[in-house]
Amino acid sequence: MLAKKRGRPATGRGKTVGVRCHNSLLESIDEWRRSEPDRPTRARAIRRLVERALATAAPSGPAKVGSRRKAADLAGQAIDSLGDQTATVEERAHRKRRLIKGPREFREVRGDQPKKKG
């Protein structure tokens, strides 16, 4: 027969992370966990909430080419429906390009566009 090891039994293999929380946050967490059918412990509730938040977080990388094209098409349709129909075709096209491209000062800070050289 194996001899028992001294100390607290290992309950998990993950790293322990210490976090300080204000009472208002702990009260919110406790309220949420009381609404859960399985009544998780506070630690389990925090892990579950973090996992859910990470699963629904928006991707932080640059937008795909197809997404940008689709967004530009949708913006173009909206601009066409709201645009000044009394303006010439050339003037409407110019306004539409300006609106979709955005102001110069905003274009310079956009993270999804390649940086200009020089």
Explain the overall architecture.
The protein is mostly helical and 118 residues long. Among the domains are: 23-56; 65-107, no CATH class. It has helices spanning 23-35, 42-56, 65-82, 89-101, 104-107. Helix 3 packs across helix 4 (89-101). The mean pLDDT is 82.
**Which structural category do the helix and sheet elements fall into?**
mainly alpha
Provide the β-strand percentage band: under 5%
Helix content: 40-55%
Distance between the termini: 75 Å
Q: Give the overall shape.
A: elongated
Strand elements, count = 0
Q: Can you summarize the main beta sheet? A: none
Number of helices: 5
Concise summary:
With 118 residues, this protein is mainly α. Among the domains are: 23-56; 65-107, no CATH class. It is built from five helices and no strands.
Task: Describe the secondary structure blueprint for this structure.
Blueprint: H1 23-35, H2 42-56, H3 65-82, H4 89-101, H5 104-107
Helix pairs in contact: 3-4
Quick tags:
single chain, 5 helices, 53% helix, 118 residues, mainly alpha
